[in-house]
Amino acid sequence: MYLSVVVPCMNEEGSIPSLVARLADAIGPYKDRAEIILVDDGSTDATWAAIKAAQQICPQVRGVRMSINRGHQIALTAGLEAALGARIFMLDADLQDPPELLADMMTMMDRGYDVVYGRRAERQGETLFKRATAHMFYRVLNAMSDVDIPRDTGDFRLVSRTALDAVLAMPEKARFIRGMFAWVGFRQIGIEYSRAAREVGETKYPFRKMLRFAIDAMTAFSTKPLKLATRLSFVSLGVAALMMIYVFRSLILYQTAPGWASVVLAISAFSGVQLLTLGILGEYIGRLYVEAKNRPLYFVSEDTRAAESAPPVLLKKRA
Fold this sequence. Notes:
Elements: E1 3-9, H1 16-26, E2 34-40, H2 47-57, E3 61-66, H3 72-82, E4 87-90, H4 102-110, E5 115-123, H5 128-144, E6 153-160, H6 161-168, H7 177-184, E7 188-195, H8 207-220, H9 224-252, H10 260-293, E8 299-303, E9 313-314
Parallel strand pairs: 1-2, 1-4, 2-3, 5-7
Antiparallel strand pairs: 3-8, 4-6, 5-6, 8-9
Helix pairs in contact: 6-7, 9-10
């Protein structure tokens, strides 16, 4: 197998036909040595039926159905582990990232690159809030991270088998795929493109999931939040010392006029710093708790490559 295309799908029944049609055209030069892996991430609509119908039309399609919804990054991991190709192309089912860019990415990989990622030069159909938060996310992430993660990129990329095997060797449960590819290194280059508006369905990343995703990304690639908590503690101690000096001065000069506002303000400020510090520590402790349980990332309930539905398959343990 020369080329594998991996697409996580969650309630994308309306997108599957056009997705497969455009992918079939994109992989045309390699169709005899290519596969299209569509991972159904516990969809509640007819996505799985649409995947099986697409397989009847396009023999390169392979469906992988997860036992329950595990989230975009885990579904993508399941598809990457199932991929057999020497080169692996990743994109989302909403077609905001153009499959037609595969030809340019293949050309760049022919020149010796191991990772060719798409960089969003323009975001069509997105709200000002979404564009602003995405812009801020990548800047803050790079400021907090110990790894230089390319800005304005997603999981839309073409990777070599060498780079993919390196990423799959990483055992963490909280996956941030684009950051993991940045961490493993190898030769990487970006290609700018205009990200289209979603034509069918709705986004699977509301603000709550975006916030959770951002926290996972920052805690997965940096200990700087812990250092920030320490610095905030020292700042709090410094402010407390200044307030103590002010109190003693007031006592000495008999300027002890009552003032509830300053007391409430001080208590609120210190309480906020303490809660923030506890929250940051809690994120890291929670991550350690999840990793210590060493549970499998996912189960597969059905794989259309098999002659018949197989029982759930346990994810192999990685050292």
